[in-house]
Amino acid sequence: MTHTHINDIVTERGVVRLRPMASRDLDRIIELEVTLFDASAWSYGAFAQELATHGRWYIVAEHDVKDVAGGDTVVGYAGLWFDGDVAQIMTIGVDPAAQGLHIGAALLDALIDRARHLGAHAVLLEVAVTNDRAIELYTRRGFHTITTRKRYYQPGNIDAYVMQRPLTDHTSHPGPVGREAITMEDPQ
Length: 188
Ligand SMILES: CC(C)(COP(=O)(O)OP(=O)(O)OC[C@H]1O[C@@H](n2cnc3c(N)ncnc32)[C@H](O)[C@@H]1OP(=O)(O)O)[C@@H](O)C(=O)NCCC(=O)NCCS
Known about the structure:
CATH superfamily: Gcn5-related N-acetyltransferase (GNAT)
Structural class: alpha+beta
Number of strands: 9
Region (Disordered): 169-188
Keywords: Acyltransferase, Transferase
CATH topology: Aminopeptidase
Bound molecules: coenzyme A
InterPro entries: AcTrfase_RimI/Ard1 (IPR006464), Acyl_CoA_acyltransferase (IPR016181), GNAT_dom (IPR000182), N-term/lysine_N-AcTrnsfr (IPR051556)
Radius of gyration: 16 Å
CATH class: Alpha Beta
Protein name: Ribosomal-protein-alanine acetyltransferase
Domain N-acetyltransferase: 16-168
Distance between the termini: 8 Å
Helix content: 10-25%
Shape: globular
């Protein structure tokens, strides 16, 4: 079992802790997934498979106290796949009730840090060309578009940008999120 460091972030609604995703989180993750991605939502089985697959790293953002967000304590999640060369962001999502608090940025920063730690040369992701908010987040975190995949997302035939962030730099990412390292178990 190895260890990693994931941040606590201080939001205007309290402390949010990033920790590895566990099977017990999946009911809540699916609830968020359906809310955020509708017809494109991954199933419970798909997430369970991801958690069990080598080279994957999934995390959740959890409030330290119940009711801070008016409901469940898990308010965000994200996942990474490292194939030995580059890292691919598999998913990232934040409860609509908790968006705009820099939780998405903190999840993304954690994935980028993990990819760098694993020795990835770059981080890749796909994003719908219509998803302005996510594109803004990725651009501010150093991603740029390298190609477009036509009719990538169904339903709707929506094109996707493939965005890449090189990891040739060894400096910390920029960003507005306060960072406090904590030590915790790695789920893989
Ligand atoms: C994309 C998503 C994960 C961002 O999460 P979030 O916690 O709301 O984002 P943050 O609060 O960290 O904001 C990050 C950046 O997004 C941008 N942003 C935030 N709110 C925005 C808005 N209303 N409009 C445009 N850009 C916005 C800003 O650049 C912000 O950075 P800054 O405030 O530091 O300048 C979230 O909106 C989400 O879950 N969307 C639905 C699922 C999804 O589309 N996932 C991505 C699939 S590729």
